[in-house]
Amino acid sequence: MRSYRLDFDPEPRATPHADLEKVLAILDPKTHTGLRNTAIIYLLAFCGLRVSELTGLNACDLSLEEGRVRVRAQTSKVRRTRFVDLPLTIAEGREMVKPEVAEILQSYLRMRARIYPHLGENDALFVPIGPNQFASTEKKVRLTTDAVRTVLRRLAVKAGVDPTLFTPHRLRHYFGLTSAKAGVPITALMRALGHRTPLMTARYSAFADAERRWAFARADITRGISLPGAQGGSLASAADCSSSSASLSEPSGNDGQEADFSD
Rounded distance, CA 33 to CA 232, Å? Predict the structure, then answer.
């Protein structure tokens, strides 16, 4: 895999943080559509679900008590059931769903029960909302993937952001990249995203590592210090350096343990 270069390589195709904030700022959770759309964006951006996985969710797949979402095998691209954590925080020494997220999702569940009283726990979590929803008694009512894409595109235009940067897949990339930058282990991120192999997840970690290196380079922690090399001081010969490097790169016995830089 080619390594990232932050001086000319673009960030992985993720929704910019500023764009996400702009769209969330125009949503009104006090309205039916605003509440549903906020819940949709939360699960796409903060859980990394694929759009087909999102629309395939049933109400019973969302557990606020356990703080996770179940993606069933029949809706998963890799045909394996997985569980994805909702945005969590630590309170009183234990993990819990962030109150802001829990409030939105719980309010949406109550609203769904009011406007579609005939739907049960094993029916669609996300449903169409419009002038005729109260008259609908269709048991298999479910929001479609195209409908989700249309909703996001309209919200992006309304918020004044590029619609091509605010798609379900770009929001999924936002989750992956943000998680990698925060130091989430690649194996945990792989399971959350439902990737088949770590290689599919490595792109997020590769960029996060490159970003950290770039930050250290820009910080220039030696700034203001008079370094021997910069003043033409006495330096070891190239041969001596090569010999030293070889001795460090080929540890043996107990020396190998002392040369462990894994942390």
Answer: 68
Tokens of 219: 């910080």
Pick the CATH number of 17-214 from 1.10.3720.10, 3.30.450.40, 1.10.443.10, 1.20.1250.20: 1.10.443.10
According to DSSP, residue 2 is labeled P
Tokens of 86: 């909702």
Over residues 25-71, the pLDDT tens digits come to 999 999 999 999 999 999 999 999 999 999 999 999 999 999 999 99
| Residue partners of 243: CB distance under 8 A and separation at least 6 | none
For residue 95 the two structure tokens come to 């993990």
Which residues have a Cβ under 8 Å from the Cβ of 106 and sit 6 or more positions away?
64
Alpha-carbon distance 263 to 260, whole Å?
8
CB 59 within 8 A of CB 125: yes
pTM above 0.90, yes or no: no
